[in-house]
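[job 0412] stage=complex_fold ligand=NAP status=START
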Amino acid sequence: MNITILGGTGFVGRSIINCLSKTKNNITIITRNREANKKILVYPKVTLVEANIHDLEELTQCTKKTDVLINLVGILNEKGHSGRGFRKAHSDLARIILSACKANNIKRLLHMSALNADSKGPSHYLRTKGEAESYLMTYGKRFVNITIFKPSVIFGKNDSFVLRFSNLLNYVPFVFPLACYNAKFAPIFIDELSEFIVDSISNTKSFNRKFNLCGPKIYSLKNILDLIIKTKNIRTKVIPLSKSLSKIQAATMEFIPGKPFSLDNYNSCKIDSYCDSDYDFYSDLETIIPTYINSN
Ligand SMILES: NC(=O)c1ccc[n+]([C@@H]2O[C@H](COP(=O)([O-])OP(=O)(O)OC[C@H]3O[C@@H](n4cnc5c(N)ncnc54)[C@H](OP(=O)(O)O)[C@@H]3O)[C@@H](O)[C@H]2O)c1
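[job 0412] stage=complex_fold status=DONE, emitting structure tokens
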């Protein structure tokens, strides 16, 4: 099969490509910047194409021979606060993807969403992810077999969740003021999630279904920080922040390049991210974190 991946150069994409490279499929990754992502060509049977996927004509042209389309595009932050960036990356893109599927008679679409994604959700991130899901399920099911994945936070080598805290701890070694300390997560190990996603490509039972996906254990953010601190063998003290101080921290951190935390992230944390998972994952943070974060 010819499998095309949008957002394939990211954390989840690289793991999925690793799984797919053990199969006989041809993989095409569409990126905004080919030069910056050339390293991905070490995988056999991978082609890297630079294109603007927000342009229907360009996307249709790049997906002419596609049998399976996988959409992993997602952003956690946007420029400004209007929600425009989130809409473009999530809900508008879903419409363009579906049009490309129709134009090219693509029969299989895998779409990465997020747990709690809902058009009435508390943040732009969750609302636009929810709008994308509704659109795909309402208008796509008639001509393409869709599977939507809704994971809690994902962890593993090169993640942006555990490693972000681990890196921040290098700069704040004594006391760490923690926003949203009581927000709950059920983290999923990336290797297990990727296998599940790749297996579902030809699993007809996953057609036109959404999967809520959670790891085996529920942790508060404070539990996760404590675990990272223990693994790094440091003595940093975590100071849980109240709701109002968490919001102030979010607003302040929006001015730091790369927005490590934002008001939209703060709003997403208003809903706990755990569920009765539609598939069983087994690896927990305690087992895996020591394999990829540096201890001191
Ligand atoms: N990581 C998690 O814990 C987690 C949890 C729940 C759901 N998810 C969802 O899983 C998906 C993959 O997450 P990830 O952690 O792999 O993200 P990631 O590392 O940030 O990768 C996302 C990829 O999407 C592409 N992209 C980003 N913004 C784009 C834009 N405006 N237009 C076109 N392409 C854009 C980028 O590819 P190029 O730069 O090559 O164009 C990037 O490599 C996302 O949809 C995310 O919302 C992730």
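The mean pLDDT is 96.
[job 0412] exit 0
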